[in-house]
Amino acid sequence: MKIDIDKTSMIPVYEQIANSLRDMMYGGSLQDGDRLDSEQKMCRNLSVSRGTVRKAIDILLKEGMVKKIHGKGTFVSNPNVEYSLNDQLMSFAESLDNQHLSYTTQVIQQELRPANAKIADMLKIPVGSQYLYLERLRSVADDKLMLIENRINITLCPGIEKVNFNNISLFNKIEELADRKISFARSTYEALTIGTERGKILELPPSTPALKMQQAVYLSEKEPVEYGSVWLKGNKYFLTTTLQRR
Amino acid sequence: MKIDIDKTSMIPVYEQIANSLRDMMYGGSLQDGDRLDSEQKMCRNLSVSRGTVRKAIDILLKEGMVKKIHGKGTFVSNPNVEYSLNDQLMSFAESLDNQHLSYTTQVIQQELRPANAKIADMLKIPVGSQYLYLERLRSVADDKLMLIENRINITLCPGIEKVNFNNISLFNKIEELADRKISFARSTYEALTIGTERGKILELPPSTPALKMQQAVYLSEKEPVEYGSVWLKGNKYFLTTTLQRR
């Protein structure tokens, strides 16, 4: 483990240490499951205080880049959940089921709201009419992994506002109440930082990288039933594809 | 524009302003093309110095979240490049061509390197044998958008190490020298921060969110011809899919 620090730099030494370790993980010289040098060894090698090394490790712990295992040390902890973009349309819940990963879903907000212009347009409902806003936090193995924000067209699945969504699949419930199958979804993915508000819920610092999915779900081309965003904690979630050439 | 700051907080005020503006962009109350309040107005409303507001704006400028237009103000600048994951396999260059976006590609490194265990395994070549390492920077409209790192199996496309890759499509060149079509690619996508080393090349601070694609490209199931990573600047690049249900 070769860490470069410059004590004359404007950047605090603990940040330099964290940046240097992060670079090694991204560059592949530190890989999944590798153990970091002990705090004592880093202090000695870099001639810095124990507090400085701890602050550096804390940054990486908060980002989910490393994990502490009591009595064993600090280990590189890499992405461990996949979501295939080649299969048929699956909800994240169904995808986790398919990977035999157990998860819990906690409802944070569930309320009827009046549609603004953007949401009215996406759900093809009149401006000011009510839709169901649903905000949920999903954890896998106690790791707060995704924040799910759904806006649901209640005229297409009446009664959905009264469902208890703790640990229930939204897609299944929509199909049950609409008494029809979901047809397709259009999605976009981008990398952002999690920001203050969502970071608070996921217990991550605002600057943590996140994958944001924005998705519109349709019963048919003219019947959008749900419009939502999913914020996936970075370094924990993989999208996968296999694409053929020509 | 309603910015919350807490002058008693440990977080510097300029960071709080940047976080608050970022949250508004992510939350949708500030959208593509919206103009931010002028620096004077923000100073007045928040009772902070001009320098503090400038530092906040600088953070967002560096992240590519906003753009300054001389004499007009500072504007929210959102993702503007798409990459479809439903089409046939396309290189990023081909995808940009399809969107009629002009770009430049600059070679940063191009050299033969001996394969370590991981690369040997991915390219199905002996450990220690040579492969072509190619590092390129691609800009769209003067925006440094992606950093491309390729590892190429030179036995499958002899002579590729001598090609001048400034503004040439790698996929086309591989197919020309291998005298065969590429068959398919397996890819994964995840959100990370850009890190120090790559941030320097893309002129971004280490904490900038980025989408990392890791891709293995095959001539046939047993002939991997390229293994690479593409680092896409966050907030600038969209992946898109349309998936059918059942």
TrEMBL record, chains A, B:
Organism taxonomic ancestry: Bacteria, Bacillati, Bacillota, Bacilli, Lactobacillales
Keyword match Transcription: yes
Keywords linked to the UniProt accession: DNA-binding, Transcription, Transcription regulation
Source organism, top-level taxon: Bacteria
Keyword Iron carried by entry: no
Name of the protein in its database record: GntR family transcriptional regulator
Biological processes annotated in GO: negative regulation of DNA-templated transcription
Pfam families: GntR, UTRA
Gene Ontology molecular function: DNA binding; DNA-binding transcription factor activity
Bilayer-crossing regions: none
PROSITE patterns listed in its UniProt record: HTH_GNTR
Matches recorded under CDD domains: WHTH_GntR (cd07377)
Chain ranges of the HTH gntR-type domain: 11-79
